[in-house]
């Protein structure tokens, strides 16, 4: 069996062992802020890789305790260019990227060793997904929600932007890759081409942002976007993250028509990010109870990976996990070494 097959099975096994639908963690940056971290900065949550790595580990452990089967790393807005513009060397920047994966792996291993000692727990051995935030996240101008990168941003430029970060993250040993808040077809294409060109052997998901409930933020249809992704077997799952929960059900139904890949959804609380003032604005917001009602519908509509994004917390994930795993047969509990 080739390495690629083994790695792809890791995600499939997790979904099966979770009872048919695995739980992704919740708002990572949100939880850092709950603990007092100040991330109003061009590096956003990645600032904590420099300032407070212990807090990153603490937040990962909180999401594991809440029942997350997948931890998404702190690298969403961690980029080589971003770190270098703060005066760090390329070596230091690469080492911070590597650290984002190592911290999550350490948290996962520590948690699992402790849980394995007690029989009767209902946890799965979690996987670590290295976050790869969109180019718009790096720009820090709200363009991960507009998809408007301007005419100068070509396919090659996007591939150049992502390539070295992708290589460093993969070398650090995550279980999978999570492309997040991709706002247009061009960037989806760049991600797919990079996975092929770099011959990446671990599974990945590509998640789009969405601001109208219908299309990618750029206005391009999800059919166009998914046609690009469907061509590659390097992508295991596709979906939506950091969009309002009330958009999700119909998007899952749409995606089911457009792809055979697993569907992953982890929406935000419904608040809207204002990229100019760098604040979450209240909108049609949803509490944990409502989020869970939605999550059950998303599961029934065929989503295989469900979690929360910005403004959701460990309490949201705990509620989702309890609800989604209520039917999980005891014999299915994953016991990996
Ligand atoms: C997912 S958004 C809230 C992340 C922050 C944004 N890229 C910014 O830096 O303004
Ligand atoms: N993984 C990132 C996504 C931001 S949209 C986070 O949770 O902070
Ligand atoms: Zn988010």
Automatic annotation (TrEMBL):
UniProt record, GO biological process: methylation
Cofactor note: Binds 1 zinc ion per subunit.
Family annotation (InterPro entries): BHMT-like (IPR017226), HCY_dom (IPR003726), HCY_dom_sf (IPR036589), Hcy_S-methyltransferase (IPR051486)
Source organism, top-level taxon: Eukaryota
Keyword annotations of the record: Metal-binding, Methyltransferase, Transferase, Zinc
PROSITE patterns documented for this protein: HCY
Gene Ontology molecular function: any one: metal ion binding
Binding site residues for Zn(2+): 242, 309-310
Domain Hcy-binding: 10-324
Cofactor entry: Zn(2+)
PANTHER family listed in its UniProt record: HOMOCYSTEINE S-METHYLTRANSFERASE 1, ZGC:172121
NCBIfam families: PRK09485.1
Protein's recorded name: Homocysteine S-methyltransferase 1
Species: Abeliophyllum distichum
